[in-house]
Amino acid sequence: MDRVVCVQCPVGCKIRFELVDGKIAKVEGNRCPRGLSYLEDELREPKRVVPTSVKVVGGKYELVSVKTSAPIPKKYIPQLMKKLKEIKINAPVRVGDVILNNVFDTGVDVVATRTVLKDSNCNAPK
Ligand code: SF4
Prior knowledge:
The chain is of the alpha+beta class. It has helices at residues 33-44, 77-86; strands at residues 2-5, 14-20, 23-28, 47-48, 51-57, 63-68, 72-73, 88-90, 98-100, 110-112. The protein folds into two domains: 2-44, no CATH class; 51-112, CPE0013-like (CPE0013-like fold, Roll). The longest helix has 12 residues, at 33-44. Residues 6, 8-9, 11-13, 30-32, 34-35, 38 line the site of iron/sulfur cluster.
């Protein structure tokens, strides 16, 4: 049987499954129905929440941590990482600020997960 680990909750069930003609024929190991939905999504189009950081200009820190507000298809992750590497945000940045809106038309935003205040000693352009 093939395996996948469900990441929908901290239990992390190890789901074993068999496919026949591309369809799920047998499933074991999921403790709740969400595991089956997760498996179906993984087989159809795997998605992940993307945590990373972006550059901050004029802040107390040079980076601010960010993440996608919901999982996005894995196929978009390399493009998203490239795009986020090019972005520079002017301080201050606050938790929940939208850094990138509607990533690749998925309806998912990239949001700040911490606050970076302005550095009063910084001479960066405002
Ligand atoms: S199958 Fe249910 S209990 Fe198991 S990890 Fe997924 S969500 Fe959690």
